[in-house]
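User: Here's a chain of 449 residues. Predict its fold as C-alpha cells.
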Amino acid sequence: MAKSENSKSNFIHPSAKVHPSNDPDSDLNSYSLEKFRLYETRARFYLIGSDRNKRSFRVLKIDRSEPSDLNISEDPVVYSPQEIKSLLQRIAEGNRATGGLTFVAKVFGIAGCIKFLESYYLILVTKRRQIGCICGHAIYSIDESQLITIPHVTIQSDVAHSKTELRYKKLLSSVDLTKDFFYSYTYPIMQSLQKNVTSVSEEGMPYENIFVWNAFLTQAIRSRCNNTIWTIALVHGHFRQIRLSIFGRDFGVSLISRRSRHFAGTRYLKRGVNDRGRVANDVETEQIILDEEAGSCKGKMSSVVQMRGSIPLFWSQEASRLSPKPDIILQRYDPTYEATRLHFEDLAKRYGNPIIVLNLIKTVEKRPREMMLRREFANAVGYLNQILSEENHLKFIHWDFHKFAKILGAVASEALDLTGFYYSGKPITLKRRATQISRTSTGRIADHF
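Assistant: Prediction complete.
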C-alpha cells in the first residue's frame, strides 16, 4: 500500500538543516525531492519527483486545458518504485485515445512559473552540477534550464504567439541561470550556518528571504502545494570551497556570498538607498571553517559573517564612456536621515548589535568626489547615535582603503572582538551573533571581499 503524507509536513526536518539523516526511512518528513521526470498527455503534465535514492515518489499534476489559468494539484500519496511504475502505465492506458503518455524531460527542480499575456510557463532545471557540500548537504549550480509552455497548443489563442509575447519570452530567456546562481535541496543556503543550527521551529525552505531571487516566481506553486519540495530556492552570488591541511590536520573552508534581491542593479546604475532603507548591492559574505578531524558532518564548525553595501544615503552616479570616474551626486537631503535609520534598523534585526561601520572611501582627493559623500555619511551616523541607546551606538570607523589596505587585519581583529563569531565547539556558551558590517562606496571595493 502507498503511504499517506502528513498534511502538515514540509519535508525539511529542523534537525536535518545541518546534519541530514542517511536513512530516509527513519523519518518520512525529513526527506526532500531531488530528481524528477516530466511526462505529458494532451490534458496534463505529470511531474514525478523522487528522493535521492529513488525509494519514495510523489506526483504533481498540472492541467493543460486552461489557456490562461494555473491549475496544479499534488497527489497526497507517497509511492514506492513499483507503485509509481504501475501508476504511469495506467495513465498511459487511459490516454491512449488522445496520444498516450509521453516523456518530456529529466528535471532537477522547478525554478519558477511565470505568465505574460496569456499562457503560463514552467522554468525547469534540466542539468545541474555539484559545486560543494556543507555538513553532508550537497550544493549545486545550474548547467542548463528549459522554458515549458503549460497549455496544450490546441487551446492556445493567437495572443500566445504574438510578437509581444515572444519578446517577453526572449527577455526571460536572456537571464542566464548558469552564472552565479546556486541552491541546495536540504540545506537553507540562503541563511548563515549559525541561523541554521539555532533555528528549530522553521519548516521548509525559507523562501521569504532577501537572498532568494526566485521567491516570487515560485510562490504560486508553493502556495498551492503548501510545501517547498517541488521548487528550488536560488541564491545569487558566489560559492567556493577548498580543503586545507595545517600540520596534518584537515580543514574545510567555504566562502559564500549572497546578494540581496532588493534594490539590486549594476554598477553606477544603482547607488545609495531607497525609501525603505534597502541599499544597492547588498552582499552578505560568510566564511565557514569545518574541522574535518571528526568527520565531515560531525566536526567542529565556525562561521563569521560580514555585510557590504552602498552607502545608505540618496546618491547616484551617471555612467559615461567619457568619464571613467563619474561625478557623485547627492540627490536628496534628508534632515532626519529616515532611510538611513531604516537601513540600520534592518541590519540590527538581521544580525543584532553591535553594528560596526567600516567606511572605506577616500579621505583626501585633488578633486572632491568621495569626500563629500564621506562627510555626509559621518553626519548621518552622528545624528543617529544621538537617538540610539549607548549600547546600540553605531561603531563608525574611517578607513582609507587606498592608503592602509595592508594593515586591514587590525581592524578585522577589533571587529571580531566586539561581535564574536559562531563556534560549535562550546555549545554551553551562548555566542553573540557574528556580525561585521563593511560599508563601502563603490563596486570595485567589493571585489576585495
